[in-house]
Amino acid sequence: MENIRYITDLSLPELDPFARLSEVQLAHYYEPDTGIFIAESPKVIERALNAGYEPLSLLLETKHIQGEAREVIACCGDIPVYTAEFDVLKKLTGFPLTRGVLCAMRRKPLPGIRELCAGAERIAVLENVMNPTNVGAIFRSAAALGMDAVLLTSGCSDPLYRRASRVSMGTVFQVPWTFFPKEEGAWPDTGMAVLREMGFKTAAMALRDDSISLEDPALRAEEKLAVVLGTEGDGLASETIADCDYTVRIHMARGVDSLNCAVAAGIAFWELGRRKN
């Protein structure tokens, strides 16, 4: 194949997106236009392609040209495919590649809140969830358990960061999502107002004495519900909890007082993602 390029020089500028640019730099690569991101593993790349993301170049282990990456290569047209053995790629990127394949892809413009949530009944709101592993795990649960969309505050890790999209198994390309604007007051003030205008009731996942049970039938009876989850460690801001219609807790045994935010999200999505009969 004419587009296969065997790596003999690790300093090639064409390899910068895979080796020398941070994810923040990648996100601003074409500024003021949309940037790029790196998708890792054939499954994640396949789901990104199916969602209409544009591939720019591939980096993969030579053995995968006729192996696990064969179908991905075929779907990517004539973009450059940079290849080398595992040890060379690890030296280049600084980490062992999952399933030996990376793809640089063009970002899409993000939709607005109203556009994203039109027709949605169950959405998740993430407040300052900073760990990309947790963001990815939350998206995987959201996809599997029937959430229609995910909204993120500006303090959250980007769902298109390599680790987040990999942990999500590519579900960040299946579940609609967007960020609240960065300006002051966008969350919770303006964001809550927009959700109310669209008919959503909000349920803050928080450990408060006045919290209702996750199994409370009033929650499932809501036609449109936003499940609001907070950052690792500190949880939701007091202001956010006060603004929500419900404060909800997961009952736990053996004196356990909290769960990892991604675990809590999965439990909440399982219970609240089910509509009333």
TrEMBL record:
GO terms for biological process: methylation; RNA processing. Residues 123-269 form the tRNA/rRNA methyltransferase SpoU type domain. Keywords: Methyltransferase, Transferase. It comes from the Bacteria. GO terms for molecular function: RNA binding; RNA methyltransferase activity. InterPro entries: Alpha/beta_knot_MTases, Ribosomal_eL30-like_sf, rRNA_Methyltransferase, SpoU_MeTrfase, tRNA_m1G_MTases_N. This is RNA methyltransferase. It comes from Candidatus Lachnoclostridium stercoravium. The lineage of its organism: Bacteria, Bacillati, Bacillota, Clostridia, Lachnospirales.
